[in-house]
Design goal:
Radius of gyration: 24 Å
Strand content: 5-15%
Helix content: 25-40%
Mean pLDDT: 84
Number of helices: 6
Number of strands: 5
Structural class: alpha+beta
Distance between the termini: 59 Å
Order of helices and strands: HHHEHHEEHEE
Amino acid sequence: MRHARGSRGFTLIELMAVVVILAVLAVVAIGAYSKHIRSAHKTEVVGDLSSITLRQKTFLAKSGHYASTTSCEGTACTYPDATVLTAAAGPLRWDTSLPAYTSAGESGAFFRGDGAVHGFDALQFLPEGGESWCGYATISGWGTLGENGNADVPSGVTSPVLIDQEFPATADQYYSRDWFFSYALCDFDFDGVYWAFTTTHYSANVSMSTDATATYQENE
């Protein structure tokens, strides 16, 4: 009798309590891991945009102007196309032969010397590891004191949202001379809502805050 009472097993309530505790611990662990992964992705984006800035400044020293990869703003203007990244639900390998990478044949406003001296190819830029979780773009132009009196003021960008915040109408000093604006659009949880990262020629910082229009929101 004494032996039987000492070897009594767990009750159903005790087992259920253990299962609940394990489930709570699993949720906490998964949340912490996901947060760590997102933080790592953000660090990669900041590093990539900082690399673009450095390469833009080097390109200016060699060529006399900055380079552009696009003349517009938005998911379809980035390389890779940010909507394709969302559909793929994962990072995409960069194909350096595609026109979207080289900006081959591009000319006009924001492009100098045609596509041969523009695009990520001209900047010799690839993200870390040759693949990315975000779509990237950089736009450059002559300022209001540009060559032959021409000016590529940022307000000429198609569908501006982010660039208008970096170059408000009262900020003429920021684009009185050559300028560039780089951005990344990221969807780390693949829900179709993008997180915008931006940087410009006049700042070494990368902004990752929700934009004022709520077009791009930090919801990751």
